[in-house]
Amino acid sequence: MTQIDLSRFQSKTPEYEQHLWSECSRLIANCIIFYNATLLSKLLAHKESRGDMQGAALVKQASPVAWQHVNLYGRYEFRKQPEPVDVDEIVRELAEIRIGTETALAA
């Protein structure tokens, strides 16, 4: 089992290690944005197809750069076969959430 601690990539010494850290950070950020944009796009289409224009307007205000729901700490295993993410199921669950004045829509 291979486990990678992302903090081990960060270095204060050689320039190439700093460059590697920067590129890894950029890759992770782009993955998060892509994941969020996919969810938000599908959720927007779902809301619009159901005629929920108020819900669609809220989705349009959500930022795809949010990352509060992503665990960036800890250990990661890359040898385990991951369970596929069912984006459509996630969108169905998000569509059922009632958004009130006290609740903000987060990606």
Model description:
With 107 residues, this protein is mainly α. The chain has one domain. It has 3 helices and 2 strands, in the order E-H-H-E-H.
Mean model confidence by pLDDT: 82
- Which shape, going by the Cα principal axes? elongated
- Quickly give the structural class: mainly alpha
User: How many E strands?
Assistant: 2
User: How do the SSEs run, as a string of H and E?
Assistant: EHHEH
Alpha carbon gyration radius: 18 Å
Residues in helices, as a percent range: 40-55%
What's the arrangement of strands in the largest beta sheet? 1-2
Q: Provide the domain count.
A: 1
Question: What's the structural blueprint in terms of helices and strands?
Answer:
Elements: E1 3-4, H1 15-49, H2 53-61, E2 76-77, H3 87-96
Antiparallel strand pairs: 1-2
Helix pairs in contact: 1-2, 1-3
Summary tags:
two-stranded antiparallel ribbon, 107 residues, single chain, 50% helix, mainly alpha, 2 strands, 3 helices
In short:
The chain contains 3 helices and 2 strands; from the N terminus they run βααβα. It has helices spanning about 15-50, 55-60, 85-95, and strands spanning about 5, 75.
